[in-house]
From TrEMBL:
Tagged with keyword Transcription: yes
Pfam short name (any one): AsnC_trans_reg
Name under which the protein is recorded: Lrp/AsnC family transcriptional regulator
Limits of the HTH asnC-type domain: 3-64
Entry's Gene Ontology cellular component terms: cytosol
Key words of the record: DNA-binding, Transcription, Transcription regulation
Coiled coil region boundaries: none
Record-linked InterPro entries: ArsR-like_HTH, AsnC-type_HTH_dom, Dimeric_a/b-barrel, Tscrpt_reg_AsnC-like, Tscrpt_reg_AsnC/Lrp_C, WH-like_DNA-bd_sf, WH_DNA-bd_sf
Keyword Transcription regulation: yes
GO-annotated biological processes: regulation of DNA-templated transcription; response to amino acid
Highest taxon of source: Bacteria
Gene Ontology MF terms in the entry: sequence-specific DNA binding
Amino acid sequence: MELDKTDFAILRYLQEDGRINNSDLADKIFLSASSCLRRVRALEEAGIIAGYRAVLDGNAVGLEVDAFVQVTMRRDVEQWHENFSKEVQQWPEVVGCFIITGEANYLLRVRARNLKHYSAFIMDRLYKTLGVLDIRSNIVLQMLKDTHVIDSALMKNHD
């Protein structure tokens, strides 16, 4: 799908407020409500808008620990990637999992109620996962930026 300036404006406003109603969105981008709705639906159908969700404040719901964990796997263990990929899907503490370059194979973002909960996750689940060789943890002390907003200047079709 070729994106134009109007599409980029729609994406910007929806990222700022996913609950904006269609008529308010149409007013902001100077379109009729029906044209705006058609464009939003086209962006959804093309998979550019992947979904809508509430973003929770982890601290407000009792998750005091936020950590990034690098996991290095043993390559001599058969099916190590398939096994780890399956396991990580079952762990509610893992809110993000990425295959990365460098020394480690994976980078996990882990949320836990407290240090005791975090420690139990690391010792009782992660370290006991078949093929795990090494774990390096970085606990977040303070968040300076955390956003899911993708600026249109970064997008490939941006003018």
